[in-house]
């Protein structure tokens, strides 16, 4: 059974557009895109730069380290066979709940953009 963690107000997260939360010793960055909230591990799988210091471009999280572009939903990059851990997010009224179990998709989705 999933122990969902309350990570904040949806209104506030949507207003800030990007926010880092600390859950179970892990920094997780929340990005908003097209009225949805996505969660990825903040430390990049490549060289541990913080995705939260990067930006969103065409629905991808761009790492400030070497500009790898991570798909918000799957965590996969377009350029490399590497997957950034992601987390499931759901909303209950104005609360945002996060599943602290990291997901690493074993296979790259057919189309990440
Ligand atoms: S540290 Fe993120 S792409 Fe290199």
Automatic annotation (TrEMBL):
Record's keyword annotation contains Metal-binding:
yes
InterPro entries membership: Rieske_2Fe-2S, Rieske_2Fe-2S_sf
**Could you name the domain of life of the organism this protein comes from?**
Bacteria
List UniProt keywords, sorted A-Z: 2Fe-2S, Iron, Iron-sulfur, Metal-binding
Ranges where the Rieske domain occurs: 4-98
The question of whether Iron is a record keyword is answered with yes
The protein here is known as Rieske 2Fe-2S domain-containing protein
What organism is this sequence from?
Novosphingobium mangrovi (ex Huang et al. 2023)
